[in-house]
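Q: A reviewer asked whether we had any structural model of the full assembly, not just the individual parts. We don't, so I'm hoping you can provide one. Inputs are below.
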Amino acid sequence: MMLLSTRGLSRHFGGLKAVENVDFDLPEGQVRALIGPNGAGKTTYVGLLSGRIPASAGSVTFDGQSITHLPAHQRIRAGMAYTFQITSIYGRLSVQENVALALRWRTGGNEAATTKRASDALERVGIAERANQLAGDLSYGHQRLLEIAMGISQQPRLLILDEPTQGLADSEIVDFISLIHGLAGEMTILLIEHNIHVVMQTADAITVLNGGEILAEGTPGEIRENAAVQAAYLGTG
Amino acid sequence: MSEIRKSWGLHIGVVTLLLALNFILPDYHHGNLARVMVLACYAMGYNMLFGYTGLLSLGHALFFAAGMYGMSLTVQHLGWSAGPAIIVGLASGLAMSLVVGILSLRTAGVAFMIVTLMFAQAGYLAALYFGEYTRGDEGFVIQKAARQIGGIDLSDPMNRYLAALVLFAVCLFITLRVVQTGFGRVLVAIRENEERTRMLGYDVHLHKLLAILLSGTMSAAAGAGYGLLFGYAGATFASVQYSIFPLLWVLLGGAGTVLGPFVGTLFMFYLIDLSSDISTAYMLIAGLTLVLLTLFAPQGLVGELRRRTLRWLP
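A: Here is a predicted structure for the entire assembly that you could use as a starting point for your response.
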């Protein structure tokens, strides 16, 4: 069963074809990595999925329903969670309130349930002891983790992570990999990632974008062996 | 004691203190405080949009005047009694904020400021244009006989003070309640990071529109109350300076704090009052004080208090 599919999905900025005619299927429960060189259209593509960016053409289907014309907030409520490439949190609010905002609509305003689930999500990413700090006072790595906590607190069907390990220390990356392993059974994950080590450790399958189009798709082993990918992306062709 | 209980305690305490002052203040300050309380309602309405939602409007005089004219014109020309006329004032404010909200929310940032300013100017000019009814800048006096609700004469200083206090308490407690709800927290989230809020699953546009409706209607309540309690309606209240005043009051008192608008209004009122006792160049004194305050308490008086000690202040 496909959780997410796109057909002919395109986005043009003037003459630039940032995303061109992408047909993509993501089965439920998979951890899929989306990789590609800078400017390949990865962030634009997930922007089209989440509704941040309107599509020029094509369709998006989520959980069997067409969501092509839904605004972003309704896509989130349909079961997508989105974390930003450039950390986007509420710096002047507490860590706890950041997560509470992410999930309050899911608990129907039940503050006790909201608090409990927010604490659980913070526990999960390992920053529970910082719940009462201002989010802006957290280190960069912890802010990235907070962003992920906000995503997983929504218990989404699909979690979209846009370069979550960017700027993290090596030890934090190790923790991140085990976090993804822990989440893998609970939700479908679409991971944009530059760190090839993280991709190989976490992904069930990989999609390679290049110039706004899908260059290759397959298991990590297949992608590693793919000559076109090596030429375009790994630079060892 | 939980923070919510503490903040209810504090705000109920403030209202109780204002009630006690009714019986002890000398006439002059008694009248001033009644005026400040009504104007503080205007500032609270403004604060809902600017302080909590982060939308800077330069046209709130339109809503204040909508309430004032909605109330006073029905009294003056249709001979309605004050109670139903207040409802008309509130409805005018609500309708006006709906129209302005739908149109102005198509813009953001500086464009939003300019669009709201333009709407308010259109309202001001309309008040002048229909001078036959509004008597323009000169305005008109609302007769003492019309300023009664349920047999209570609102032109009597004691009644006027208590009516102002009721209006003030209603606006204060509505604000306090709203900022404690999930809705209020989403408004703050929009102020802090609009795009993030949208991508957490909130309809940002709808929340902003509701904030404008609440803000505009509260401002209209202040306008209707002011006209009724002080017996006068004039186009000056629709002019641009009455759009700037609430911004100043809120900035001084503390944007995004429940008590800030009242403190700011009170402070500004007495700053001008006291400095005009000292010198005819009172605006110089007032201006200098404002500059110093902006330098050393950029978050406003209550905002600064919250930053330094009382972190739980709503």
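A: Points you may want to mention in the reply: The longest helix of chain B spans residues 204-230. Chain B touches chain A through 18 residues (CB under 8 Å).
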